[in-house]
């Protein structure tokens, strides 16, 4: 939430009051708990991951051998890994696009509702309260071979859906569930963004432009862009990492060749395959990918955004 | 260029008292009409109904003879200037000006010509490629006006456009709006709560209170013959003095003062008497001449305006304000002369104006004629 505030309201920071502390150490003391959490749970594991990515660890914990870049070379030369990377890219693009698009569509529609809008909002937001594994379970019920309504709808159109057996069908269900889980989050931010737009600007646009759709793309969407940019970054991260719970529920203990993403592969190799070195190398690669993606987004998209 | 007819228009928000009830206004082509009243009087609601931003509960609005009740705002051929400018923050000044024209598929050279013309008229040339946030309040308001002008609409609608500006800028922008409207000759409907703005801008004033029209008329007519105590207290600064009086034959009693009106008055008994602060004078010692009565004014405090002294005090137990010259002598209690011809009488119950003097009617016509000549 703090990040949201700083992204959509960057100007507020500049008008904030300076606070004077009696001792120069005091502000560091206030920051210490937060810093401790970041160091212990973020930097320390990251450093360990980078370190162990250069070693070949004994699966049973009897020491480790330095192997240089071998782990990285092994991972990048593995065709299976490259296939998973390709799937991850497609999965991330689809999940990000559809959860942003549907969240925006629902927010625009809910914003236009005058009567009973609190009910609509609560119903749309409530999905967000569901934990990812539970969302995965509920999603699996929707796609269940025997009772799943989605399977029945697909059958009605002549599509014999076999989630858990067919690679494509599982991937489809995975995208649907991941999108479904993320829509409320985007919905909340888009809705509050829409409601933060000055009413008179929208009214001026109503006088200047007859077409509601054109009005949306020329006036309302550009004003929502700061929110959309923030959500883009959050959604990419979500699709890459936070879908782990959903994927785990869907593919765990399934014998077939099912689609998984890079972060799940890290988990599989590290905790199921006990290949700590290779798994660490993968997570370092993933870290670099996300870092590069974020830098690119800031460089090429953010400069086109107008902060009000 | 078009007429606007507002015919028995009402606005009722579900279950509440009407915000606007049965308002009739007929606006001639090229006329500048100002809707004025205190906040909550329904003036903005009425304007927004003409713009199409609020639905019309009952009645009809015609722009250029066409009923527009169910016409989208973009299709009403109107342009609106908002209180907080409502510029598109992500577009440059040039794009802001061109936006409405682009959406109406105006040919490009035409758009460029009109934007250039508006920029020249409003002296916006140097700012055309800036974003609104890089402009001052006055410049933003000029862009908002430019956006209305380039459209060359049938009518301009102004919703308190000067309220966000500081006092000095407000005066200069007021002049600019008047000058521009004269120049382009577009029918205008202007909403304000500032009676001074209303007086100076309007061809005709519409004074609203509680969703109803109190009075429609030329500014000086409204000033000199307010139709009710509400109008009397709203138009003019300082506000007209309104005191309770008692009429007996040709005599008027205000508190302890007894004034001879010089001729019998058709109404008798309790009335509300109105007189403007600037029509009162300190009575010369040695009595009064003609049909001038005097009231003893006990002075409470004095406001120095530089050009004027506003003396606030009481006659009996009723408050009265007197506007005197800057160097008028002051004392704790002074006799104030009431010019008989400039008294206004209102029904003590309803507050409606009571007809009294033929002199007064003659005088206001003259004032209105003078205004016409001045134009």
Task: Outline the structure in words.
The complex is a heterodimer of chains A (308) and B (375). With 308 residues, chain A is an all-alpha fold. Chain A has a single domain (80-304), classed as MetI-like fold (Orthogonal Bundle), CATH 1.10.3720.10. Chain A has 14 helices and two strands, in the order αααββααααααααααα. Chain A has helices at 2-8, 10-15, 26-52, 70-77, 79-112, 117-126, 132-142, 149-156, 167-196, 199-208, 212-242, 244-251, 262-272, 276-300; strands at residues 55-57, 64-66. Chain A has a two-stranded antiparallel ribbon. In chain A, α4 crosses α14 and α6 (117-126) packs across α9 (167-196). By secondary structure, chain B is α+β, with helices and mostly antiparallel strands. Chain B folds into two domains: 4-229, Rossmann fold; 232-374, Beta Barrel (OB fold (Dihydrolipoamide Acetyltransferase, E2P)), CATH 2.40.50. Chain B has helices spanning 43-51, 93-103, 108-121, 137-150, 167-184, 195-201, 219-224, 229-234, 358-374; strands spanning 4-11, 20-27, 32-36, 58-63, 66-67, 78-81, 155-159, 187-192, 204-209, 212-217, 241-248, 251-254, 257-260, 269-275, 281-282, 292-304, 308-315, 318-325, 333-339, 344-347, 353-354. In chain B, the strands form four sheets. A six-stranded mixed beta sheet of chain B has the order 6-7-8-3-9-10, sandwiched between helices. In chain B, strands 13-12-11-14-20-21 form a six-stranded antiparallel beta sheet. Chain B has a five-stranded antiparallel beta sheet with strand order 15-19-16-17-18, with no helix packed on it. Chain B starts with a strand and ends with a helix. Residues 287-291 and 358-368 of chain B have low confidence and may be disordered.
